[in-house]
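Researcher: Structure prediction, please.
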Amino acid sequence: MIETLAASMGLAPGDPAFWMPLSFMLLLFLVIAAGTVFDGFDIGVGILVQWAPAQDRGRMMGLLSPWRDANEFWLLLGLGLFAAAFPFAWGVVLGALYAPLTLMVIGAVLRTVSFEFRIRAADINKPRWVLGFCLGSIMTALGQGMALGRIATGFQTVEGYGWFSVFVGFCALATYVLLGATWLVMRVRGDLQRRAAVWARHAVRWTAAGMIAIAVTLGLANPGIFYKWSNLSHISIAALIWVAMLACFVTSEMVLTRLPGRSKNLSAVPFILCVVLLQLMLGALAFSLFPYVILDDLTLWDAAAANDSLRLLMVGVGVALPVALLFNLIAYRKVFGQAGHDPRPLI
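Model: Predicted structure follows.
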């Protein structure tokens, strides 16, 4: 497939003009996949914190403290990589996604400010910053979901696609709630774990609805994507993905229903299955859009910077990225473990 694709552009697979843009797109996908999981549980817990009992809110935000700085790394790295490696697409994408990206950035800033100010605020003012953290998390999730809805429709402005983008935004909100709730199920015990299991079960159905809606709309909005998934060489892969996603949803529901009783030793399973679901969705979306950055308009090679610029960027990424990843691996070394006993500080 790679040889055929390179030949269609008159290039060899070993030509830097071919493999460097491909490498940066792969790196960008890995950053998005990592950010969706690690920043995702942060956003999910932030959405849920306002609906938790007052005595649990401080504990929920305290659980996030070791990873707050690391979580913000993925968004900044993804935006920086995309703008530097694919400058010819940056302006078009920024114009098409101006509203959802603005909502996402405002939400991210509000989350960060609220989280830091809550730590230093007087006890009487802490609830305001908890509310700000929740609102910022909601805005961030809605912005990302609305952007995904616009991408899935190829930035089309046909009537109805705007409402579809809003619907995907709310489904993304549910997906982050599912990720945050299952992370809490894995991390805590007792009443908070029971509440998190209930939150996760409510979010599962809307997560499934969003993923189905994106898959159907991708096929209906673009004949090329419909053909890519329906031809005989790929239909078995599509069937396998759907079966795997269905198995993840059903298994998660079964485990969550039995928590914190007989399935207490399986408390990490829903979170792991949620991560698998997200990676399957992102992988299928990437396969659907490849090799385009802007569907049916601009390929990743058309959008890429000049070879000399990519070489310079690759040197910088090769030096900085391993250091940043090492920091993140150290920060995340206990993200999957059960949290120790906390005194449940008040908000």
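Model: The radius of gyration is 21 Å.
Researcher: Thanks, that helps.
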